[in-house]
Amino acid sequence: MLLEINDLVVKYGNIEALHGISFHVNEGEIVTLIGANGAGKTTTLHAITRVPPPEGPKIHGGDIRFRGRSLLGVEAHAVVRDCHIALAPEGRHIFGNLTVEENLKLATFSRKDAAAVQKDYQRVYDLFPRLTERRTQRSESLSGGEQQMLAVGRALMTGCNFILLDEPSMGLAPLLMYDMFRTLRKLNEQGMTILLIEQNARLALKFAHRAYVLDTGEIVMAGRAEAMAENPEVQKAYLG
Ligand code: ATP
Asked: Complex ipTM, two decimals?
């Protein structure tokens, strides 16, 4: 198991957002957490990447283990640097006043291996040719879809081999959503492990290997994504 979440309890102040959830991600998998608004999907990602309070959630119980080691005592920046876990937030969290290239470069600040960094620039521009055309453009002038690509690109530039994706389809036109997910599958085939949260459950279940359904802070269902997509309860609640 690459990532193992055990009985995780998370609060914002007095409000408990996750009531003891457990799930795992194996190396090489695409795993998705689906669920309605407010179910606790973003909270889960932020607990893993240790976004500190006040915006970030506070962990009150349970454990997050990565390659068998607890992340609870690890500082947020060290989670990325030492553990190789990168968070690609929704596209609107990129730095609008910086260019595409500058945004990508920011993610490489702690990397020492110049040749590997160069290879990763190439990989990002190969995966997202739109970003190549726009590398000197200020990011705020990118379309929503291009900003989404940049958010994923920036996560790749950390050199991490496990990425957490926050709603990669957000703001994308249907055709571009498919492109994005095909790109993610390509990345996965190249060895990237992916945990993604998605409102678009249909799309997420089509591309993921396994899925968990999160409902008001609890995992209520788990299984192979394909089987989940066929499950009448899931269809009724999330694919309707
Ligand atoms: P969405 O799909 O709408 O983004 P989500 O599944 O990602 O939803 P979360 O954002 O994790 O859900 O929210 C889970 C619960 O925690 C919600 O009840 C939300 O109101 C609450 N919450 C989230 N962030 C904070 C915060 N910074 N302070 C207080 N409560 C928060």
From this structure: 0.95
Give 84: exposed, middle or buried? Use CB within 10 Å, 0-12, 13-18, 19+.
Answer: middle
Instruction: Give, for all 240 residues of the chain, the pLDDT tens digit.
Output: 999 999 999 999 999 999 999 999 999 999 999 998 899 999 999 999 888 777 889 999 999 999 999 999 888 778 877 767 888 887 778 899 999 999 999 999 888 899 999 999 999 999 999 999 999 999 999 988 899 999 999 999 999 999 999 999 888 888 889 999 999 999 999 999 999 999 899 999 999 999 999 999 999 999 999 999 999 999 998 887
* Cβ 90 vs Cβ 148: under 8 Å: yes
What's the CA-to-centroid distance between 88 and ligand 1, angstroms? 17
Name the CATH superfamily for 1-78+197-240: P-loop containing nucleotide triphosphate hydrolases (3.40.50.300)
Provide the total of helices (H) and of strands (E) in the chain, helices listed first: 10, 10
Strand pairing partners for 213?
34, 221
> Which of 8, 12, 59, 164 is the pocket-test mutation for ligand 1 (most atoms within 8 Å of CB)?
12
Where are the chain's structural domains?
Answer: 1-78+197-240
- Which atom of ligand 1 is the closest one to the Cα of 55? 27
Q: Is the CB of 40 under 6 A from ligand 1?
A: yes
pTM above 0.80, yes or no: yes
